Amino acid sequence: METPELFKDGKRLDGRALDELRPIRIIAGVLKEAEGSAFVEWGGNKVICGIYGPRECIPKHGASPYTALLKCRYTMSPFASLEEHGRTGPNRRSTEISKVIREAFGGVVMSGEFPKTQIDIYVDVLQAEGGTRIAAIAAATVALANAGIPMKDMISGVAVGKAGGQLVVDLGKAEDNYGESDMPIAFTHRDKEIVFLQMDGKLTPEELGNCIDSAMEASEKVYALQSEALRKSYEAEGGQELDI
Ligand code: CDP
Predict the structure, then answer these.
(1) Which residue, 51, 85, 105, 157, is most buried by CB atoms nearer than 10 A?
(2) Which atom of ligand 1 is nearest to the CA of 91?
(3) CA gap 241, 27 in Å, rounded
(4) pTM
(5) 8 Å CB contact between 119 and 35
(6) C-beta of residue 67 within 8 angstroms of C-beta of residue 118
(7) Sheet containing 24-28: which strands, arranged edge to edge?
(8) Which of 177, 178, 197, 198 maximizes ligand 1 atoms within 8 Å of its Cβ, making it the mutation to test the pocket?
(9) Looking at ligand 1, which atom is closest to the CA of residue 81?
(10) Measured between alpha carbons, how far is residue 147 from residues 11, 34, 78, 193 in Å?
């Protein structure tokens, strides 16, 4: 398939600068039944996350006497994007994304405080426009904090990479699908530890370093929005209105 133009008149397709994030909106505490929840609108992505637990482990024999089991289920709704329409349920991609999200939080959630239980992170993608795993991580961090689950640190991330020969921050769908390289990455806020990193395509070591630096900078902006969402949720008693 022929690669479409990723730059027009020196600008990205949606007019953004190379290091500019898409508009991001985060709302915490949007679901009544879940222990914690968050909705994230990130450009054309819309994801919602609900947290259940710590609760009794199912099946019981899977429980650990030492720690809570952290589980994650990421799914994309059948109407989330053109390619996905008509197909639903778990597939290879959603199984992989569920696994890597779970591993990202494995290092920060203080599971040892809740032996014999499980904590469930459910993320549903309602609309997709490239970067849904990163939007899912942003939502899950806020939802876990909203649930009052103790964490060593918050996680924030962004996808960086190379599209049309340029290093770009927060790849849009066309850049993700047709660019030379896509590297979603997430850091802990305080220590800037990398807790999540995947990569498609190729980057030189120098480009890789530059990508990590700009991702770190962009993640700070995401972190600011995450903490602002949490602050607002404490002020709003009885949950927040979700206008999607
Ligand atoms: O969403 P993310 O970038 O984390 O994951 P991806 O697998 O690299 O997919 C990139 C984008 O391609 C998604 O965000 C969707 O917009 C689109 N996609 C799709 O429409 N249908 C799929 N089955 C997979 C991806």
Answers:
(1) 157
(2) 23
(3) 9
(4) 0.96
(5) no
(6) no
(7) 24-28, 36-42, 45-56, 117-127, 69-76
(8) 177
(9) 20
(10) 41, 8, 28, 23
The predicted pLDDT at position 85 comes to: 58
Q: Which CATH architecture has domain 20-233?
A: 2-Layer Sandwich (3.30)
pLDDT at 88: 66
Q: Which of 50, 19, 6 is nearest to 159 (CA)?
A: 19
**Amino acid in position 137:** I
- CA nearest neighbour of 224 among 19, 25, 2: 25
Q: Which of 1, 132, 182 to mutate to test the pocket of ligand 1 (most atoms within 8 A of CB)?
A: 132
Helix-helix angle 132-146:92-106, to 10 degrees: 40
Q: Which residues in the chain land under pLDDT 70?
A: 1, 82-88, 238
